[in-house]
């Protein structure tokens, strides 16, 4: 099967080592002209340090998921355990509901603007977070990893650090002939047109964006993929690594043993969260 899309996730919930405090909320998105839901995980000292302003990590989900993925998939409990062990610094995590949009600005709506403008503005007004690029990051998984990498390369001024796991990086436009299933193609068509608009696809493709981004503007960047990824996404991730290397764009990249899904994410999440925490603490 050709590498086409990382869209399905393994329903694996991590064992809880601490009670994560995750609050849900909604705000009006000017970019979409409707209300959007978020889930916010507060760090342990948020309530006991009223004068402190925290960095913030925006978390982007995969296809067929929503803002509840961060807690439902066990990632909130995983992060709580890291905080409990004092392994990483404290920050807020804000999971944004982007539907099946690929977080793209296109005919389906301005979902990239939702993340880079509306969600940032709301969180900075509603929560005690430090303001400015150097104090915010984005983390994405699968479809959300594709979006996180695209934002890093298309709007490098938006976030100071970016991390992605199993990002949907495809070396050609997906088609049924290349292995994309009907329900995956339906999702593509809703966002990129039917047939897929090559111009919109290329404009949103991290592999293409890597060729034209200012090397000095790219935020701190970390991404990885499983060597047994069932969708073959390691190929596209390796391709992005080669393109960034060729242009001497600083980044961290690794292939690790594992398939596509949250079992794999569990093995690499501590490294990405530590990377983001360090970058936000500079």
Characterization of the model:
34% of the residues lie in helices and 19% in strands. The protein is built from nine helices and ten strands.
Strand content: 15-25%
Q: Overall 3D geometry?
A: globular
Low-confidence stretches: 1-18
Question: Strand order across the biggest sheet?
Answer: 1-2-4-3-7-8-9-10
User: What's the CATH C level?
Assistant: Alpha Beta
Quaternary organisation of the protein chains: single chain
Separation, N- and C-terminal Cα atoms: 42 Å
The CATH topology corresponds to: Rossmann fold
Number of helices: 9
Question: How many domain modules?
Answer: 1
Query: CATH superfamily assignment?
Result: Alpha/Beta hydrolase fold, catalytic domain
List the helices and strands and how they pair.
Blueprint: E1 22-29, E2 34-41, E3 56-60, H1 69-72, H2 75-84, E4 92-96, E5 105-106, E6 109-110, H3 111-126, E7 136-141, H4 143-154, E8 161-165, H5 182-192, H6 198-204, H7 206-209, E9 220-226, H8 233-246, E10 252-256, H9 262-280
In short:
The chain is an alpha/beta fold and 282 residues long. The chain has one domain: Alpha/Beta hydrolase fold, catalytic domain (Rossmann fold, 3-Layer(aba) Sandwich), CATH 3.40.50.1820. The protein is 34% helix and 19% strand.
């Amino acid at each position: 099967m050709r590498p086409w899309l990382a869209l399905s996730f393994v329903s694996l919930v991590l064992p809880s080592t601490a009670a994560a405090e995750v609050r849900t909320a909604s705000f009006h998105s000017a970019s979409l002209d409707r209300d959007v839901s978020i889930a916010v995980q507060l760090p342990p000292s948020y309530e006991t340090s009223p004068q402190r302003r925290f960095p913030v990590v925006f978390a982007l989900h995969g296809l067929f998921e929503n803002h509840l993925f961060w807690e439902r998939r066990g990632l909130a409990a995983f992060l709580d355990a890291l905080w409990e062990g004092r392994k990483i610094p404290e920050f807020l995590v804000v999971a944004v509901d982007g539907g099946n949009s690929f977080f793209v600005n296109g005919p389906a709506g301005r979902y990239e603007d939702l993340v880079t403008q509306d969600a940032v503005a709301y969180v900075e007004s509603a929560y005690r977070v430090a303001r400015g690029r150097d104090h915010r990051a984005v983390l994405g998984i699968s479809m959300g990893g594709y979006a996180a990498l695209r934002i890093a390369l298309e709007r490098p001024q938006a976030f100071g650090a970016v991390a992605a796991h199993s990002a949907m990086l495809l070396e050609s436009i997906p088609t049924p002939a290349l292995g994309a299933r009907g329900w995956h193609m339906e999702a593509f068509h809703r966002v990129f047109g039917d047939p897929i608009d090559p111009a919109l696809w290329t404009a949103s493709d991290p592999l293409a964006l890597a060729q034209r981004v200012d090397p000095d503007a790219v935020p701190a960047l970390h991404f990885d993929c499983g060597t047994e990824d069932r969708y073959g996404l390691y190929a596209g991730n390796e391709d992005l690594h080669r393109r960034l290397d060729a242009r001497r764009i600083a980044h961290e990249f690794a292939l690790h043993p594992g398939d596509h899904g949250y079992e794999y994410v569990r093995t690499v999440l501590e490294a990405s969260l530590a990377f983001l925490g360090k970058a936000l603490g500079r």
